[in-house]
Amino acid sequence: MATSIYHKADHFCRMIKGRIFYGWWIITLGSLVLAVGMGIFYHSFTVFFLPLKRDFGVSSAAISLLYGAARLEGGVEGPLIGYLIDRFGPRVLIIMGAIITGVGFILLSTVDSFGAFFLIYILVISLGYNAGFFHPVSTAVNSWFIRRRAIGFATIMAAGSMGGVVMAPLLSYIILNSGWRNGTLFAGLLILIVALPAGLVIHRSPEVRGLYPDGMDPEKPHSGLQAVPEVHFTVKEALKNLSYWLLFIGITLRILVTIALAVHLIPILVWKGLSEVIGAYAVSLFTFVSIATTLMMGWMGDRFNKALLCSAGILPTIFVMLGLVVSSDKTILFALPIGLAITIGTAPLNWSLIGDLFGRRSYATLRGIMGIGYGVATFLSPIYAGWIFDRTGSYTIVLMTFSIILLVSTLIFAMLCFTPLGRSSLGFVGVYDEKVKD
Q: Does 119 reside within a domain?
C-alpha cells in the first residue's frame, strides 16, 4: 500500500514538473511532517508537564529530566543519524522515524508508571523523532535550495509552529477532559496518518531528478538569477575551521535557553499568577507569533547578514526575562511568549548558516555533530530550571542565569561575521534576484 501511495504521489509531482519547482513540493511535504512532529513533540510537551507531575507524583525536576534526556539522546545519536542521512537520503529516515514515533506515543497510552513512561519516551519516541523529523527534512531543504535557503528553512519551521498553534490547545483540551493517555494515543495516530505518507516522496537532492538547486539551470543564464558560488567542505575540513566552532557554541547556547523556557513556559506563567488554562493559550500565542517571526527572519536572511540577524534576534528574550525578575506587572507575562518567539524565529537562520558556510555535501553530519553540544545543553537546562524551582519556589535565579547565557550567544553570532569564512561565505546576500547581465 505504501508503495502504491508513493507511485501515485510521485506521478502527480512529475505531471506538474516544469510548472512548479519540485523543491517547493519538498518544502510542502516537509512542512506537513514537521507540523505534526514539532507541534506534538516540541511545542506541546509543556501541556503534559503538570498533568504528568500530578498523576505520577513526581517533582518538576523529574518531568524536566524526561524532556532533557530526550534531547540528550538526540544529541548522542546526532552524528550517526547525520551520517545515515548523508548516506541513504532523508526519505528512509523520515519513514522509519514516523513509524517509530507514532507507535511510541500509542504505547505511552498504556503505561501506569513514570519509569515505563520514561523508557518509552526516551528509547522509542525520542529515537524516532530525532532520527526522522527535523534533521532529515532540514537536510532535504538544504540540498534543494542555496539562494532561497533561509526562506526554505523558515517555511518548514513556521509549519512546525503552526502545528503547535493547533496541537497545544487541542491536546490540552483532550488531556484536561479525558486524561493525558488519550492525548498520547491521539498524537501517535495523527503522526502515522500524516507524517508517514508525506515522507514517501521527499527526494534527497535536485540532482537525482535532473534539476538544480533553486530551480536554476547554470547553462541557461536567461533564467533570471545570478548563480551563487557554492562551497564544498568535508567534515574534516569543517571541524578545523573557527567559524564552525563559533556557530556550534552560538547555536548550543541559544537552544539551551529556548528549549528550557519552552518546557517551563506554563510553569513560569503559573508561578507569576496565571492559570494553567490561560498558560495553554499563552503557548498558542508563542507558537502563533513564532510563525510570523520565523517567516520574517527567513525573508530577511536571504537578503541581509544571517549572523547579525541571529545576534539581534536573541535580545528580546533577554529583555523580557530581566523584566520578569524586576516587575510584578502581569501584562509582562504575555511578553515572554512573544520575546521567545522572536528568538525562536532566528532558528532557520542558524541551520541555513551551516549550509551557507560549509555547503551541501556533509550538511547532515556537521549538523549532527552540533547535536552533541545542544543535546547535552538541553538535557541539563530544563533539569536545572526544575531543580532551582523545587528548592526556591521561584524562577528568578533561572531567568538571571539564562539572560547571561543568551548574552554570550549574542556576542558569538556577532563575532562570526568577522571571521575569514564568515566574511566570504555571507558576502553574496543582497544580490537576491539580481538579473544576469549579458
A: yes
> Are the C-beta atoms of residues 184 and 105 closer than 8 Å to each other?
yes
The CATH number for 339's domain is: 1.20.1250.20
Number of Cβ within 10 Å of residue 178's Cβ equals 12
List beta partners, residue 359: 232
Task: Confirm whether 431 is domain-assigned.
Answer: no
> 342: burial class by Cβ within 10 Å (0-12, 13-18, 19+)?
buried
Into how many domains does the chain fold? 1
What sign does the dihedral 162-357-78-113 (CA atoms) show? negative
Q: Would 432 be classed as within a structural domain?
A: no
Helix (H) or strand (E) holding 13: helix 2-15
Measured distance CA(435)–CA(438) in Å, rounded: 10
Residues in the chain: 438
> Whole-angstrom Cα distance, residue 33 to residue 310?
25
Closest CA to 408 of 238, 252, 294: 252
Cell of 314: 536573541
Q: Which three cell numbers stand for residue 193?
A: 496518518
| Residue 232 DSSP one-character state | B
Backbone angles phi, psi at 232, to 5 degrees: -135, 80
pLDDT for 218-273, tens place per residue?
566 544 455 556 677 888 888 998 989 999 999 999 999 998 888 788 888 888 77
Residue tagged 548558516 (cell numbers): 353
Asked if the structure places residue 434 within a domain, the reply is: no
Residue 305 makes CB contacts below 8 A (sequence gap 6+) with 417, 426, 429
Residue 182: CB partners within 8 Å, gap ≥ 6?
A: 109, 174, 175
Q: pLDDT tens across 167-195, in order?
A: 888 888 888 888 888 888 999 999 999 88
DSSP secondary structure of 371-431 = HHHHHHHHHHHHHHHHHHHHHHS-SHHHHHHHHHHHHHHHHHHHHHTTSHHHHHHTTTTT-
- pTM score, two decimals? 0.75
The string of DSSP codes covering 143-184 is HH-STTHHHHHHHHHHHHHHHHHHHHHHHHHHHHHH-HHHHH
Express each pLDDT in 67-113 by its tens digit: 777 777 777 787 888 888 888 888 889 999 999 999 999 998 898 88
| 245: containing domain | 2-425
Burial class (CB in 10 A: 0-12, 13-18, 19+), 9: middle
8 A C-beta contact, residue 212 and residue 147: no
